[in-house]
Specification:
With about 325 residues, the protein is an alpha/beta fold. The chain has helices at about 15-20, 55-65, 80-100, 135-150, 170-180, 195-210, 225-240, 250-260, 265-275, 280-285, 295-310; strands spanning about 5-10, 30-35, 50, 70, 105-110, 120-125, 155, 160, 185, 190, 195, 215-220, 225, 250, 275-280. It has a seven-stranded parallel sheet, sandwiched between helices. A two-stranded parallel ribbon has the order 6-15. The protein has a two-stranded parallel sheet with strand order 8-11. Strand 1 (about 5-10), helix 1 (about 15-20) and strand 2 (about 30-35) form a beta-alpha-beta unit.
């Protein structure tokens, strides 16, 4: 019998990419997907879909039976604080407890670098930053990753994740720019980004590599991305949707005044204005995978998908 892998969040943005990555595994590998609805069968034909919910401990115990490796990608992002607590904190604790009782040998969880709060973070190395989450989502995800690490598991903390299926990062920046009369002059901050497929390979690598360590990893492309490159990508998508921009360029200070009262836009703006650069080369040395292309090249591979998303929004 081959390796038995359980993936949560398998129908989500990153979890779905992890499922696709498992198609490269030997045929002897058995993949099980935890889904909330019977119709959620995932994308891997050989995968077994089992019904369960992070708020239902009994279903988690059944899902973990006979499993060797757990890759936990499910989370509640935004919205109700109580739901975030029930899923990200208590749900992760129940899942980890079920995995430990079932004899799971490796636990890997997807988290976020936002557990450290807001920057500036410049070339921040592992172990140098305190936990300082500022939202219900990041607070409960920080609590959830503690359950994983207390059980000897591995946590991956990306900052900004882009690629086909992304409905938050790049679309959010496009919405921000659309609220301004002209192009945003974003300054000189640096940011850590990773494409979704590279992150998925890192999650699977953390589950399989004998070199994977317990504790947290920052997972990003090794080269930080200037904010000007990120804004240029979002601006190009906006121009595709609306046509040429005729207003005068706007700097960060002017944008703050124009966007007063728009909490989400202000959040994106504050993030863009400040360094969020995390330095950790261990994933690409220890997890048996490559970081993929840099942002400009990688974004080009997904540009048509973003255009289609925005055209229909």
């Amino acid at each position: 019998m081959g390796l038995r892998i359980l993936i949560t969040g398998a129908t989500g943005f990153i979890g779905g990419r992890v499922v696709e990555a498992t198609t490269a595994l030997p045929e002897s590998a058995e993949v099980r997907l935890l889904v909330r609805r019977p119709a959620d069968t995932g994308v891997r034909g050989a995968a077994e879909a089992v019904r369960g919910d992070l708020r239902d401990p009994a279903s988690l115990r059944r899902a973990c039976e006979g499993v060797d490796v757990l890759i936990h990608c499910a989370s509640a992002i935004g919205g109700d604080a109580e739901l975030a607590r029930a899923v990200n904190d208590e749900g992760t604790r129940a899942l980890v407890d079920a995995a430990v009782r079932a004899g799971v040998t490796r636990i890997v969880a997807l988290s976020t670098a936002s557990v450290h709060g807001r920057g500036p973070f410049r070339a921040a190395a592992p172990g140098t930053l305190p936990l300082a989450p500022v939202s219900a989502t990041s607070r409960t995800r920080a609590a959830g990753e503690r359950h994983v690490m207390d059980a000897g598991g591995t946590v991956l903390r990306p900052h900004l994740v882009y690629g086909t299926g992304d409905r938050q990062v790049i679309p959010g920046l496009v919405q921000l720019l659309a609220a301004l009369p002209g192009q945003l002059i974003g300054g000189d901050s640096l940011h850590s980004l990773v494409d979704a497929d590279s992150l998925a390979r890192a999650l699977l690598g953390a589950a399989l590599s004998v070199r994977a360590q317990a504790g947290p990893y920052y997972v990003h492309h090794p080269d930080p991305v200037p904010v000007t490159e990120v804004l240029a990508a979002a601006e190009k998508l906006l121009v595709h949707r609306t046509g040429p921009r005729l207003g005068a360029p706007v700097d960060i200070t002017e944008a703050r005044a124009l966007l007063s009262g728009h909490a989400v836009a202000q959040h994106h703006l504050d993030m863009l204005a400040t360094d969020h650069w995390f330095s950790d080369d261990r994933p690409w040395r220890e997890l048996g995978c490559e970081p993929g292309p840099g942002f400009t090249e990688g974004f080009a591979d997904h540009e048509a998908w973003y255009q289609g998303l925005l055209d229909h929004s």
